[in-house]
UniProtKB/TrEMBL annotation:
Classification of source organism: Bacteria, Bacillati, Actinomycetota, Actinomycetes, Kitasatosporales
Protein name, per record: Uncharacterized protein
Highest taxon above the source species: Bacteria
Biological source species: Streptomyces enissocaesilis
Length: 161
């Protein structure tokens, strides 16, 4: 039985030399990971969208949710603030996509407590053209036509027996 104890001790020394044991003396750093939007989504302007995340550690300081536009060379420039002073423990927020030019964007969540900002994978924002429900005629013509129609109805009403 002594040989089993010696073999275990030798195996432990060998594995500790190759793979040092992990020490958990330092607490895990605060981190935030964006869960939604997932990469490749297509958003339309003036549309309500849900942004969600998960956190590790204890984040107490409010976060800002930003939208950044891709420049094409791998750089991102700030485009809009989607939400500010959001409680990170809420694990999400609902935002309205602002009217922006079409193109690639990403969501960035910032907080002074975070060691680094959290970013979503790239998504696409489309500008949707609104269809007009009004007729193509000028407003002045429509008003004149409406007045003429009202006058005719009044004359017919007065002329009835």
């Amino acid at each position: 039985m002594r040989w089993i104890a010696l073999t275990r001790a030798q195996l432990k020394r060998t594995t500790d030399a190759l793979f040092p044991p992990r020490t958990s003396s330092a607490p895990a750093p605060d981190a935030l990971l964006v869960r939604a939007p997932a990469g490749g989504e297509c958003w339309n302007c003036v549309e309500r969208r849900q942004i969600s995340w998960r956190i590790t550690g204890a984040l107490d300081y409010p976060c800002n949710v930003l939208l950044e536009r891709g420049t094409g060379q791998g750089h991102w420039s700030p485009a809009a603030v989607l939400a500010s002073q959001v409680d990170p423990r809420a694990l999400g927020t609902s935002v309205v996509v602002p009217e922006l030019p079409s193109g690639p964007y990403r969501v960035r969540i910032t907080s002074p407590e975070l060691p680094y900002d959290a970013c979503s994978p790239p998504l696409t924002i489309r500008t949707v053209r609104k269809e007009s429900s009004a007729p193509a005629s000028p407003a002045r013509y429509r008003i004149r036509r409406t007045r003429r129609h009202v006058r005719r109805r009044i004359r017919r009403w007065r002329a009835r027996p």
